[in-house]
Design a protein that fits this description.
The protein is of the alpha/beta class. It has one domain: Purple Acid Phosphatase, chain A, domain 2, CATH 3.60.21. Helices cover 24% and strands 21% of the residues. It is built from eight helices and 13 strands. It has helices at 12-18, 58-71, 92-109, 128-131, 142-149, 184-196, 215-218, 243-253, and strands at residues 42-47, 76-79, 114-116, 156-160, 163-167, 171-174, 177-180, 203-206, 256-261, 267-272, 275-280, 298-304, 310-316. It has a six-stranded mixed beta sheet with strand order 4-5-8-9-11-10. Strands 3-2-1-12-13 form a five-stranded mixed beta sheet, with helices on one face. Strand 1 (42-47), helix 2 (58-71) and strand 2 form a beta-alpha-beta unit. It starts with 11 loop residues before the first helix and ends in a 7-residue tail after the last strand. The structure holds zinc ion. Zinc ion binds next to loops.
Length: 323
């Protein structure tokens, strides 16, 4: 178990979620025992669910998270989506302000290569009623996310060292809201990409909404006992609806080693059929109001080895909630 490493005892909730499923906890990084670059180890900082906003010192919080992450000397940063606090329902002026804060803060505070994943909160105006949008605006919908991140489309792949990284766009429209799956164009692209990837090149997939995660079940309040006897409920849009299809694709390819996600703001590790699924908390914690179900504001540190193994830890950066 390359990924397993001793560390401080996590809290009970996290421990239960992680039991027997792989590495967790501060201190795991020490187990890697390799200087970055010297042996082809890639250090990836995964900062998801930043939810930057003018309130509660979030801009300073984002800066603190990037400073903390870069003190670890990562080779690259991936933001995992929901980088701004809800342009899905925001009016024009608010959306413009959030975009400016994110872009300015990123430009000022991030000095390593960065790739972006799109989250539901990065999509402008899909709730037309609340946002007051017509749908004809030049930056409506996912075009806002492309502008926010300076990219031509909301999914892409790239290679770094021995690894291939696949940044997926989970979010699809559903009425005035959204759900999570890959549309046909993206799905076909992913199938081709996995087929074309050499067998010796391990793949790390990053999506905003978890493809598979126990947090999709544990998020929120426990279900009332009266519901016992009915099907286990996965909260709406907390997990990909095409999870079984994607997992089968990853399993049969034999190349996908790690899938990182955010969205639920919780942390878990699931390992099945040689694929690890890690949900990686939130930079904003409880949307800048502290911890969510015991998970403090933080981000993922992943050391990826050329042989396809990796070490992951969830690093907190000491952020205290402000009024
Ligand atoms: Zn989200």
């Amino acid at each position: 178990m390359h990924e397993h490493a001793p560390g401080p005892r996590p809290d009970r909730r996290t421990f239960l979620a992680a039991a027997g499923l792989g590495a967790l906890a501060a201190g795991a990084r020490a187990a890697a025992g390799a200087a970055p670059g010297a042996t082809g180890v890639i250090r990836l900082a995964h900062l998801t669910d930043i939810h930057v906003q003018p309130e509660r010192g979030a801009e300073a919080g984002m800066a603190a998270a990037f400073a903390h992450a870069q003190s670890w000397k990562p080779d690259l940063v991936v933001t995992g989506g929901d980088s701004v606090m809800d342009v899905f329902e925001a009016k024009r002026g608010r959306a413009d302000e959030l975009r400016r804060i994110f872009r300015d803060t990123l430009r000022r505070e991030c000095s390593v290569p960065v790739h972006h994943v799109t989250g539901n909160h990065d999509i402008f105006g899909w709730n037309r009623g609340k946002s007051g949008t017509a749908g004809t605006e030049a930056d409506w919908g996912k075009r806002f996310a492309c502008d926010l991140f300076g990219v031509p489309r909301t999914w892409h792949s790239f290679d770094h060292g021995a690894w291939r990284f696949v940044c997926l766009d989970s979010v699809q429209p559903k009425g005035d809201g959204y759900t999570a799956f890959l549309d046909d164009e993206q799905h076909d692209w992913l199938v081709r990409l996995l087929a074309e990837t050499p067998a010796e090149r391990p793949i790390c997939v990053v999506s905003h909404v978890p493809i598979m995660s126990l947090t999709a079940i544990t998020y929120g309040k426990p279900r009332p006992r009266e519901q016992n006897g009915t099907d286990t409920i996965i909260n709406l849009a907390e997990m990909h609806t095409d999870a079984t299809v994607l997992h089968e694709l990853f399993k049969s390819s034999g190349k996908v080693r790690l899938c990182l996600s955010g969205h639920t703001h919780l942390v878990d590790h699931c390992r099945i059929d040689g694929v690890a699924y890690v949900c990686d908390g939130a930079v904003s914690g409880a949307w800048w109001r502290g911890s969510v179900q015991g998970i403090a504001p933080g981000y993922g540190r992943v050391e990826l080895r050329p042989d396809g193994s990796f070490v992951h830890e969830y690093a907190t950066y000491g952020w205290a909630a402000r009024d």
